[in-house]
Fold this protein.
Amino acid sequence: MGVPVPDAEPAAPAAPAPLPPPGAVAGFVQSEEPDDSYPTELETPSQGMRRIHEQGGWNRGRQYHRLLIHCTAHDGCRTQREISVQTCRALGDLEPMAFLGAWIEAAGGFTTAGAHARHRPGIAAVRAFFDTMD
Ligand SMILES: [Zn+2]
């Protein structure tokens, strides 16, 4: 009989499959007015100012709230990061943005959008990017 252990949560979901173009994701509604909690742009050293798309809603009975970013190094390349207790655990509310920034900065290590899209930056890379954010 133990107290629930917070760290017993399941690991973050696997990297998403290659995604269709923005606006074409079945079952998802892009929020018209992102709320004020997240900046809509992210400054990255390697790709400059990148637009951040905040999305939220319901899919198959499950609520989601996430940030999405496009990479300019590969055609049609993008990734997203869920905003959740797990994805904000180490660094707080801006951790999902730092994740996206770290993902952008890793672009040079990949030759295809598919390979880059499957990349999930580790916490060290996320933390390093976080430290460059204002
Ligand atoms: Zn890319």
Notes: The chain has a mean pLDDT of 84. Residues 95-105 form the longest helix (11 residues). Residues 14 and 118 are 9 Å apart (CA to CA).
